[in-house]
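Design job #97: recover the sequence.
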C-alpha cells in the first residue's frame, strides 16, 4: 500500500539501490519507543499508523523483546521438518485465542501468502473453479491474492489470466450475493472490516448472509483478517465481534507485532481435507516467529489490551469529531476518520504536528491503525492536533 507521500530525498546524495516503488513519509526515523517514533532532527511523533498495522504493541515492548532474544539464543531457526514445542504452543495459543472452532493452524510468512494458501485449500477441497470476493477488497500482491484484490489488475499489473475465475460482489448487496454465489463458487473471501478500502466495517447482516449462502452452497468462507484480526477490533478476531464463524481465517500483521509471521486457521472439516505435502513453506512456523506469536497473545491477554482497544476506540469516536473530521467508521483501532478535506492534506498537516496517520483508497478517509497500548492522553493529542488544523 502506498501513502501518497512524496519520495524522501536521498540525503547522502549517493545512488540509491532500493527499488523506488514506495511513497515514503518525509521523516528520518531513527528509533521507536512505546507509541512514539523519534527522528534524527529531534522530533517525537505519535505513531497512529504502526507500520501498516503491524506495530500492535508499539515499539520495544519489554516482553516482546525478551521473547525475541530468548528464542534467538536458544534456536533462531528450524523448519517444520523438525518438531518444536514452541511451534505447537503457538498454534494452541492462537486456536484458543480465536475460540471459534478453527482449531488447526498453518503458519506462513505474510498476509498474501496466507491468502494464497487459504484459496488453494478451498479450491482443492471443493473442486470448484471460482472465487468470489467483495468490491473494495485488498488481499495482497501475489498471484491468487492479487486476483481477488479489487482493482489490482489496473493498478499494479495485468497478468493475462487470473489463476481461477473471479467475481466481485457489490458491498452490502444481499440480493446480488445470493445470485452470484453459485455451485461454481469454491471460496468466498472477505475482509469483515475492509482495511485499505478505508477501515470500512461491513454490515452484520451482510456477513451473516455470506455465511448462510456459503453453507447452503458448500463454498468455503474465508475471512481475511490480516489487518483487522488478532485484537485490532477489540475482539480476538472480527469474526468474534460479528459472531460469524468462517471456515478459514487468515491473519498476519499484529500476529508477530513486528516479527514477520502469518497464519491460516482452519475449521475441522477444512483441516481434514488437507493431505500430507499439499502445503509447504521454508520459513513459515520458524521458532522465532512462533515464540513471538505466543508472546504477543500472552501480552494481549495479560495486559487486558482487548479492553483497551475498545476503550480507546470509543474515546476516539467521542472526542475526535473535530477539525476536519465529519464521521468515524471501522472498529477498534482500525478506524477511518472521514474528512471534509482530502485525507492526504490532513495527513500532511497532522505529520507536521507530530501525529502520524495513514490514508486509504477512499480519498476522504484518514486511517488510524494505532497500537493496542494507546493511552487516553494519546487520543487527547490526536484531538488537539485535529482541532489545531481546523
Ligand atoms: C486485509 C489484507 N490482506 C492481505 C494483505 C497483504 O499482506 P502482506 O503485505 O503481508 O502480504 C494486507 C496488507 O495490507 C491486508 O491489509
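Job complete. Output follows.
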Amino acid at each position: 500500500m502506498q501513502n501518497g507521500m512524496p519520495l524522501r530525498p536521498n540525503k547522502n546524495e549517493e545512488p540509491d539501490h532500493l527499488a523506488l516503488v514506495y511513497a515514503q513519509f518525509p521523516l528520518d526515523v531513527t528509533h521507536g519507543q512505546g507509541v512514539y517514533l523519534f527522528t534524527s532532527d529531534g522530533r517525537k511523533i505519535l505513531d497512529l499508523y504502526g507500520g501498516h498495522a503491524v506495530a500492535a504493541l508499539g515499539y520495544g515492548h519489554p516482553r516482546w523483546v525478551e521473547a525475541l532474544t530468548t528464542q534467538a539464543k536458544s534456536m533462531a531457526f528450524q523448519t517444520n521438518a523438525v518438531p518444536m514445542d514452541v511451534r505447537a504452543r503457538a498454534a494452541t495459543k492462537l486456536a484458543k485465542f480465536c475460540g471459534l472452532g478453527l482449531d488447526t493452524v498453518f503458519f506462513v510468512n505474510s498476509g498474501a501468502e496466507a491468502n494464497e494458501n487459504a484459496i488453494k485449500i478451498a479450491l482443492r477441497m471443493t473442486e470448484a473453479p471460482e472465487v468470489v470476493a467483495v468490491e473494495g477488497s485488498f488481499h495482497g500482491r501475489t498471484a491468487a491474492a492479487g486476483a481477488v484484490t479489487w482493482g489490482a489488475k489496473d493498478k499494479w499489473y495485468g497478468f493475462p489470466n487470473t489463476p481461477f475465475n473471479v467475481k466481485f460482489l457489490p458491498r452490502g448487496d444481499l440480493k446480488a450475493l445470493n445470485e452470484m454465489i453459485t455451485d461454481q463458487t469454491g471460496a468466498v473471501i472477505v475482509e469483515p472490516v475492509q482495511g485499505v478500502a478505508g477501515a470500512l466495517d461491513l454490515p452484520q447482516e451482510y456477513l451473516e448472509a455470506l455465511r448462510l449462502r456459503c453453507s447452503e452452497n458448500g463454498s468455503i468462507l474465508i475471512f481475511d483478517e490480516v489487518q483487522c484480526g488478532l485484537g485490532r477490533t477489540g475482539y480476538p478476531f472480527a469474526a468474534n465481534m460479528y459472531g460469524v464463524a468462517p471456515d478459514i481465517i487468515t491473519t498476519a500483521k499484529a500476529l508477530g507485532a513486528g516479527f514477520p509471521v502469518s497464519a491460516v486457521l482452519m475449521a475441522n472439516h477444512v483441516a481434514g481435507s488437507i493431505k500430507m505435502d499439499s502445503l509447504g513453506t521454508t520459513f513459515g512456523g520458524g521458532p522465532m516467529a512462533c515464540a513471538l506469536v505466543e508472546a504477543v497473545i500472552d501480552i494481549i491477554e495479560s495486559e487486558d489490551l482487548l479492553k483497551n482497544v475498545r476503550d480507546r476506540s470509543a474515546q476516539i469516536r467521542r472526542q475526535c469529531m473535530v477539525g476536519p473530521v465529519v464521521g468515524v467508521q471501522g472498529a477498534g483501532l482500525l478506524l477511518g476518520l472521514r474528512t471534509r478535506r482530502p485525507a492526504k492534506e490532513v495527513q500532511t498537516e497532522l505529520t507536521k504536528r507530530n501525529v502520524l496517520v495513514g490514508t486509504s483508497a477512499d480519498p476522504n478517509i484518514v486511517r488510524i491503525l494505532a497500537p493496542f497500548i494507546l493511552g487516553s492522553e494519546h487520543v487527547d493529542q490526536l484531538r488537539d492536533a485535529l482541532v489545531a488544523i481546523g
